[in-house]
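Second attempt. The first submission of MarR family winged helix-turn-helix transcriptional regulator had a stray character pasted in from the spreadsheet, which I only caught after the job came back as garbage. Lesson logged: always re-copy from the clean sequence file. Corrected sequence (153 aa) follows.
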Amino acid sequence: MQHNGAMSLTGPPAVHDELVHLTRQLMTGDRHSDDQPSIAQHSFLSFIGRNDGCRATEISDVFGVNRSTISRQVRGCIDAGWVYADPGPVRLGNPLHLTDEGRKYLDAADARRLDQVVSRLHDWTESEIEEFARALHRFRISTESQTDGDDTL
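This time the job returned cleanly.
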């Protein structure tokens, strides 16, 4: 449902088109640089940071992603030194935690992403920014949302 002339669209098709373009931009921008985690890694690290001791099964349920996908993310983040898993029975899943290095990496990535947002909003008025944030929040938590208003992602 993507159209070349996004600005000529109106109503829900215009919103959909802009969301598709924004999502693509978030998914592909700077994702493989050494100092910037992929959007999947960022989401994963952020979740662990907010839910210390969570298990891969919980992440799988919240993200709606197959456990094997989460297991690959866990392994990659452990190998990178960003996450550690408590010992325990594998069947239950091991509690996951950010390492100090993982927290620093995530904090730096968050700061860079916030800087990107700030630079895009540099010529917006404060009221435009507030209205945009309210509209995004309202859209995200709508009753038809696929995440059921879950603030943990």
